[in-house]
Structure formats: structure tokens, C-alpha cells
Amino acid sequence: MSESPALTISANAARQLTEVLATDPGAALRISVKGGGCSGFQYAFDVEKGRADDDFIATRDGVTVLVDPVSLEMLMGAELDFVDDLMGRAFKIKNPNAVSSCGCGVSFSI
């Protein structure tokens, strides 16, 4: 049986990232996990051009997502998605490692 990818990007997220990054050639979305938020950890999203040698790199449809090794441990098997619903438009992480999360989906615990 094959191992699941460390982090995947949904088609919706790739389409939205294409729009977001269109004005900044060579830029990528960096996802990191930081301490804080109402559930213990929170996701951070930044657009940047710099890449570290030990970054995990996920790509889909020409867009790139970067994750540092420490954050990747908490994101193993997760999917970056983009949702547009009554709560608003936002990137969301579907994280199988999170045992609970806050109502807005930005904060989680493992």
C-alpha cells in the first residue's frame, strides 16, 4: 500500500492560488503552524519568494505551497482547500491530525 502524500492541494485551492499569486511571479504560499489561537495551535498563511533547503514543496496546476519541517509534522496527510460559503471565502486546512478545532477553523489542537 502506498503512503499518502504529506500535504495535498485541492483543485479549488489551486485555482484560487493561481489568482492570488498571478501578480507576483515566482511566489509561493507558505503554510506554517504556530502556537496560539483558542485551541492551542493556529495556521498561518504567507506569500513569499524565499525557500529554505528543508522546506516540503507541494505543487498542483502550476502553484506551489511550502511547509517547514516542524509544521509538516502536524500537517501530515492534510489537504489545503478553498471554500466559499456563508462564513466567507477562505483557505482551509483539512487536517486529519487535529482532534478539535475552533468554529472558524483557523485554530486546532492535536
Q: Can you walk me through this structure?
A:
- The protein has a single domain (7-109), classed as Hypothetical Protein Aq_1857, Chain: A (Sandwich), CATH 2.60.300.12.
- The chain is of the alpha+beta class and 110 residues long.
- The protein has helices at residues 11-21, 69-75, and strands at residues 7-9, 28-35, 41-48, 56-60, 63-67, 78-85, 88-94, 100-101, 107-109.
- The model has no long low-confidence stretch (mean pLDDT 84).
- It is 16% helix and 45% strand.
- It is built from 2 helices and 9 strands, in the order βαββββαββββ.
- A 6-stranded mixed β-sheet has the order 4-5-2-3-9-8. Strands 1-6-7 form a 3-stranded mixed β-sheet.
From the 3D structure, determine the CATH topology.
Hypothetical Protein Aq_1857, Chain: A
Overall number of strands: 9
| Amount of helix | 10-25%
**Overall residue-averaged pLDDT value:** 84
Sketch the topology as an H/E string, one letter per element: EHEEEEHEEEE
- Quickly count the helices: 2
Structural class by secondary-structure content: alpha+beta
As a whole number of angstroms, the C-alpha radius of gyration is 14 Å
Q: Could you name the ranges where pLDDT drops below 50 across 5 or more consecutive residues?
A: none
Number of domains: 1
Shape: globular
The CATH first-level class comes to Mainly Beta
* Spatial gap, N to C terminus: 26 Å
**Main sheet: strand order:** 4-5-2-3-9-8
- Give the CATH H-level superfamily: HesB-like domain
Q: Summarize the main sheet.
A: 6 strands, mixed
CATH architectural arrangement: Sandwich
Strand content: 35-45%
